[in-house]
Design goal:
The chain has about 220 residues and is an alpha/beta fold. The chain has a single domain, classed as L,D-transpeptidase catalytic domain-like (Beta Barrel). It is built from five helices and ten strands, in the order H-E-E-E-E-E-E-E-H-E-E-H-E-H-H. The two termini are about 30 Å apart.
């Protein structure tokens, strides 16, 4: 996993962005809501194409959305053995954020930093944007209006510090939760087979996010 550097004073000023959910994200959200696949746990949907994260509580209520940074490599599978390699040994094509359904829990990473482990075996975690390497311009990438420059990590998912500390950590820290990562190239039904019986619809994800705006959630 990437080295998680201590957050800078300006890192907490990263703001959430209003991202319109894609058809794929909406379809997955509808399926989770209808089936209860999250098992009464909070959950996150990550849309790699949009470089966006959508957060929900255990009952499916939307708690907000935020931009994310993801693996520089395009692909939906982790290279076998990648979790045991040092960062220097991981080639660009191996730096993927795998797609799928993951049970995520908090735990310690390098430097005794607590992170949300999405897939411990492949060293994929969700954590605030590291600030150690200024040349990577990670914070600027996160705040840019396009998702095209959001591929920079070794596979981990980077989120704004304020969103991580204020929303993700409080709701995931007790029992963990489920993280659904949408694919880059695979058919979405191959990643989430139960979608074969879930009809494609407009869904209610947009409505949930709009309710957030009306409620004025901080």
């Amino acid at each position: 996993m990437e080295t998680v550097s201590p957050p800078s004073e300006t890192a907490g000023t990263d703001m959430e962005t209003a991202t319109r959910p894609s058809e794929a994200a909406t379809r997955v959200a509808d399926w989770i809501g209808a089936s209860g696949d999250n098992g009464a746990l909070p959950y996150i949907i990550i849309d790699k194409h949009a470089a966006a994260l959508f957060l929900f509580d255990a009952k499916g209520k939307s708690l907000g959305e935020a931009p994310v940074l993801i693996g520089v490599g395009i692909g939906d599978d982790a290279t076998p053995g990648v979790g045991s390699k040092s960062l220097a040994e991981i080639g660009p094509a191996e730096r993927t954020t795998p797609a799928g359904r993951f049970l995520a829990k908090f735990g310690l990473a390098v430097g005794k930093q607590r992170v949300l482990w999405v897939d411990y075996g492949t060293s994929v975690a969700l954590h605030p944007v590291p600030t150690g390497n200024k040349k990577e311009r990670r914070r600027a990438r996160l705040l840019s209006p396009t998702s095209e420059d959001n591929r920079i990590t070794f596979g981990c998912i980077n989120v704004p510090l304020a969103f991580y500390s204020g929303k993700v950590r409080p709701i995931f820290r007790r029992k963990g939760g489920v993280v659904y990562i949408l694919p880059d190239t695979k058919p979405i039904e191959d990643v989430f087979p139960r979608l074969h019986v879930q009809p494609v619809s407009n869904g209610d994800l947009v409505q949930r996010l709009q309710e957030l705006d009306v409620a004025g959630t901080p």
